[in-house]
Design goal:
Blueprint lengths: L2 H13 L6 E5 L3 H15 L4 E5 L2 H9 L14 E4 L3 E2 L5 E2 L6 H10 L3 E6 L11 E5 L4 H9 L5 E3 L15 E5 L7 H9 L4 E4 L1 E2 L5 E5 L5 E5 L1
Helix pairs in contact: 1-2
The structure holds arabinose-5-phosphate (A5P).
The site of arabinose-5-phosphate has 18 residues, from helix 2 and helix 4.
């Protein structure tokens, strides 16, 4: 399977949704990259649109592709487009494999429309782990214990040199190895209630549309 072709197809399809004058949330990761490249091409061809980046990598990519960037303001965004690690039939999503989940959730939540772009390998019947979370460093061992009481082993992410990985917000990242997430809403509520958890990678009821790219270049359009 040509995963890159599938990601490319989904990114191109999402870029076609951007209308003149839109302010757009720009996601992070290898699928969002194709969206950013395609949007840059449309801007080069005369489309007027601007973006809010969800990570420094995305900021650099957007700058390379002539997408004007701005801060997130109170008026929000017209559209946000981002990749995902898993998507279920109800368009609930797990995100954060790339460690940008907090900014990604802020940007997706600020957008009137949130569109997720994935290749077919991300489509699942039921969500499961690894579920990324962002944690404050203070009291992290206690927070990990409280997280594990929700039904999964949690592991702090490490950088290649063995040091603890930090998000761009300066916090720690961990992944919860849930064998299955039978009630995503109950788990999201439980995680959000834990002091020390900045946010988690469950994006529930946020995506209005999921574009699933296939390696033959076609795109399945799933709408809620
Ligand atoms: C970044 O923190 C993530 O939420 C990514 O959007 C997600 O992991 C999907 O990334 P890929 O498109 O690279 O698989």
């Amino acid at each position: 399977m040509d995963v890159e072709a599938a990601k490319h197809a989904a990114g191109e399809a999402a870029a076609a949704l951007v209308e003149d004058g839109m302010r757009v949330g720009l996601g992070t990761g290898s699928t969002a990259r194709w969206f950013i490249i395609a949007l840059g091409r449309r801007i080069d061809a005369g489309l007027r649109a601007s973006g809010v980046a969800t990570s420094y990598a995305t900021q650099r990519l957007a700058e390379e592709h002539s997408i004007p960037l701005h801060e997130l303001t109170r008026s929000g965004l017209d559209l946000a487009v981002d990749g995902a690690d898993q998507v279920d039939a109800a368009l609930n999503v797990v995100k954060g494999g790339g460690g940008a989940l907090v900014r990604e959730k802020i940007v997706a939540g600020a957008a009137r429309r949130f569109v997720v772009i994935v290749d077919e390998s991300k489509s699942v019947t039921h969500l499961s782990g690894p579920l990324p979370v962002e944690l404050l460093g203070f009291g992290v061992e206690h927070t990990l214990g409280a997280l594990e009481a929700t039904g999964a082993r949690f592991f702090l992410r490490e950088a290649p040199d063995g040091s603890l990985e930090h998000s761009e917000n300066g916090n720690l990242l961990a992944d919860g190895l849930y064998p299955a997430i039978s009630d995503p809403h109950a788990l999201a509520d439980a995680l959000a209630a834990l002091p020390g958890v900045v946010d988690h990678g469950l994006f529930l009821g946020m995506a209005e549309r999921v574009l699933v790219g296939r390696d033959d270049g076609t795109v399945e359009d799933r709408t809620r």
